[in-house]
Design goal:
Blueprint lengths: L1 H6 L5 H7 L11 H8 L5 H16 L1 H5 L5 H101 L5 H33 L7 E3 L1 H18 L3 E5 L7 E3 L1 H17 L5 E8 L3 E8 L33 H11 L4 E6 L3 E9 L1 H12 L8 E5 L3 H13 L3 E5 L2 H11 L3 E4 L5 H14 L3 E4 L1 E4 L3 E4 L3 E4 L4 H12 L5 E5 L3 H13 L3 E5 L13 E4 L4 H13 L8 E5 L7 E3 L11 H8 L3
Parallel strand pairs: 2-4, 8-9, 8-10, 10-11, 11-19, 14-18, 15-16, 15-17, 17-18
Antiparallel strand pairs: 1-3, 4-5, 5-7, 6-7, 12-13
């Protein structure tokens, strides 16, 4: 609208010129400053067009009056007007060029500022992550020191007793039989204490390291509680304590390791006996909608509120500094906590000083635990089962379905997560196989679906090799945000060596630099290239790490690498834009490329 208004500024001078003397009116001279001002708003072409309109109207003014045509005045002024128009057009072009240059410079500045802010944010995130890991390592170091100190203290006490009394027995021959038996009894008691402590330490180490072997089966919690009560009953009777059970009829079975759960019950019951001097102990269970809640209630001395969480820490003992306290390692409740958490349950205590304590723990019912186990193991025997293929590429989805059906599976196809959710709720497939997931949003929908319906999810990167048919293309995976331990584990699982040359294919500088810095710090020789065609063939490459690309670009990169003679058999580790959990990524491992979809089917048939 403004341009239209300014366009009529020059032609708008004509009526004023006409009314004040015609072509020789002094107002005609206003043209010159007016066109100069218009250079700020007009480009050269528009400025020239407006000037030509003014000149044409100026030249026909004498014809309107009807007098003799003043050729001399028109001839003098019109060329001057045109020259001024050309000069102003040139000036307008210079101004527009400078404005464009300033705008581009401003855009570049803002772009660089945004990039710098993004880099600062990324660096700050990395610093925060490093500080968090540093604090965690520092805490682990403190815990390790405390653990070793506590172990030394706990072992030293029984060893000192054993050594002292054995030396007395060895060095003095005049000890009477009663004293000898007393000393031998102490040695035997301390030996048992040392054995129990050793077993408890081994339990803690195994549970913390994840090397515990769980023997999961259908467990009758009522039977476990009754067995524990029968075992501890003699200790309770020796202290004059009443012990009873409170069990509802027909408790639902739970999924668990019976021996480990019995270990928890024995520990809780023996602790109750230790810290109860009068009254009794009740063990029982309550059936909840999705879980069984087990409790051990005593009428003992109770626990201070600030100690309710501490009692589950390693080597923590209530009132340890008080004389006459019951002996113990302080490991029992921490082991109970680890065992219950290993069953995906919770354990806690409620207590009132002087009125007793109640320890609770929960276990999933069999049906709920079975669903959770399907998520935890990620492995199901799917021979003849139904598999959903979630892939937005129609051709690849059809290829996967045809090949799996040829192997004896039944398949469903979905081209979006929304379709997958609807189909899964209606048909409840045995497993879902999805292609490359570009972001956390897609993954979140899949995770929710898998968690709610208990359907294991597998991600696999497959290409259609024109010579060999569909092939699993990737050997291993790295997920984001980057974790050094996870990167090292992924590389070693594929490369199986401590050194070598690694090529990183990435068009994201930050991503490539982070990967290069870590791999370089581990002794690998690295190079960064922007695309698959840039992977050199003059020097041997032992591993290729592919960065996070858009899906179409990623498949093009993988196809290029797997169809080029120089890279076809080089292991590939793929970087994912998501944090992988609640699903399993199917890769070739150290196996060379080729062999079709057998690796995918092998993974589907795995248990655990």
């Amino acid at each position: 609208m403004n341009k239209v208004f300014f366009y009529f500024v020059l032609p708008g001078l004509i009526p004023a010129v006409f009314l004040t003397g015609g072509v020789e009116s002094p107002l005609r001279l206003i043209y010159f400053p007016a066109i100069l001002l218009l250079t700020r708003f007009f480009d050269p072409n528009s400025l020239l067009l407006s000037s030509l309109t003014f000149c044409a109207l100026y030249a026909i003014l004498p014809l309107i009056v009807g007098d003799e045509y003043p050729f001399y005045a028109v001839g003098e002024n019109v060329p001057a007007f045109l020259v001024m128009a050309l000069a102003s057009g040139y000036l307008s072009g210079v101004i527009k060029g400078e404005e464009d240059s300033v705008r581009k410079t401003s855009d570049t500045y803002h772009g660089l500022t945004n990039a710098l802010n993004l880099n600062i944010t990324n660096l700050q995130s990395q610093i925060d992550s490093m500080m968090e890991r540093y604090e965690r390592l520092k805490e682990l170091d403190v815990n390790k020191t405390h653990f070793l100190s506590s172990i030394s203290h706990e072992i030293r006490s029984p060893l000192s007793s054993i050594r002292s009394f054995s030396e007395i027995l060895l060095n003095y021959s005049d000890i009477d039989d009663d004293t000898r038996k007393e000393f031998l009894g102490i040695i035997n008691e301390e030996s048992e204490r040392l054995t129990q402590l050793t077993n408890e330490i081994l339990d803690v180490v195994r549970l913390d390291s994840g090397r515990t072997q769980w023997h999961m089966d259908n467990v009758d919690v009522g039977e476990v509680i009754q067995t524990g009560v029968k075992t501890i009953l003699p200790l309770a009777k020796n202290k004059g304590l009443l012990m009873e059970t409170n069990l509802p009829g027909n408790l639902t079975l739970v999924k668990g390791d019976r021996n480990r759960l019995l270990q928890v019950m024995l520990n809780l019951l023996s602790n109750a006996v230790k810290f109860t001097s009068r009254g009794g102990i009740t063990a029982g269970a309550e059936e909840m909608p999705e879980e069984i809640r087990v409790f051990v209630r005593d009428t003992g001395e109770g626990i201070y509120p600030e100690e309710k969480e501490k009692v589950f820490e390693e080597f923590y003992r209530i009132g340890d500094e008080l004389a006459g306290r019951a002996k113990g390692s302080g490991l029992g409740l921490s082991i109970c906590k680890k065992i219950i958490e290993g069953h995906r349950g919770r354990i806690w205590v409620e207590s009132q000083l002087g009125k007793g304590s109640t320890f609770y723990f929960t276990l999933y019912k069999k049906s709920i635990a079975a669903r959770e186990d399907a998520m935890a193991t990620r492995g199901v025997d799917l021979v003849g089962g139904q598999i959903m293929i979630l892939e937005d590429d129609t051709a690849m989805r059809r290829i996967l379905r045809e090949n799996l059906e040829a192997m004896g599976y039944r398949t469903l196809g979905a081209n979006s997560t929304r379709t997958a959710v609807e189909l899964a709720r209606l048909r409840h497939p045995d497993a879902i196989i999805t292609g490359y997931l570009e972001g956390e949003e897609q993954f979140s929908e899949i995770r929710t679906l898998s968690s709610v319906l208990g359907i294991p999810v597998y991600m696999v990167s497959v290409i259609n090799d024109e010579k060999s048919g569909p092939q699993v293309a990737v050997n291993g995976y790295i997920s984001k945000p980057f974790d050094k331990d996870q990167i090292e584990k992924a590389i070693r699982a594929v490369l199986n060596r401590d050194s070598g040359r690694i090529t990183i294919i990435s068009n994201k500088p930050d991503e490539a630099r982070d990967l290069q810095l870590f791999m370089g710090s581990k002794g690998y020789e690295t190079s960064i290239v922007p695309d698959a065609d840039s992977v050199g063939s003059t020097r041997p490459v032992h591993l290729i790490v592919v960065g996070s690309f858009p899906k179409d670009d990623l498949y093009a990169v993988l196809t290029t690498l797997r169809t080029s003679g120089s890279t076809v058999y080089i292991p590939i580790v793929l970087t994912l834009n998501i944090l992988v959990r609640d699903m399993r990524c199917i890769g070739l491992g150290t196996t060379q490329y080729g062999g079709g979809l057998e690796k995918m089917v092998e993974m589907l048939r795995e248990k655990g």
